Amino acid sequence: MENMPIRIGSMQSNDLLIEHDARRECFELVNTLTAVPDDMVSEYLSRVLQQGGLDIQRMRIYYCGANEWVVRARGKALSAVLNGEACGDGK
User: Fold this and answer.
1) pLDDT computed for residue 55 by the predictor
2) Which domain does 57 fall in, by range?
3) CA atoms of 44 and 22, how far apart (whole Å)
4) 31 φ, ψ to 5°?
């Protein structure tokens, strides 16, 4: 499982899509909000996700205007998958 890319979230408005890949060596941000500077979004996402214990260097994030509770929820979901706490079959 650790070498398989993981996708959490969506590209919908006010959401974000996190792609986590253990083979990735650097963080990449795709900011769909042209009115918000990339460095501001990157700093914000880094702070929130690192507080959840996640290694952002393994991520590509498509940011579509998600607020902090959405970022935290997506981070928590990713953490659960990485720690083997989530199953796709509803168990």
Assistant:
1) 81
2) 6-82
3) 22
4) -95, 115
Q: How confident is the model at residue 62 (pLDDT cuts 50, 70, 90)?
A: very high
- Residue 7 tokens, joined: 């996708």
pTM: 0.81
Amino acid of residue 31: N
Domains held by the chain: number: 1
Cβ contact 86:16 at 8 Å: no
Quickly state the pLDDT bin for 87 (edges 50, 70, 90).
low
Residue 37 lies in a domain: yes
Amino acid identity of 20?
H
| Length reported for the chain | 91
Query: Band of the pLDDT at 89, cuts 50, 70, 90?
Result: very low
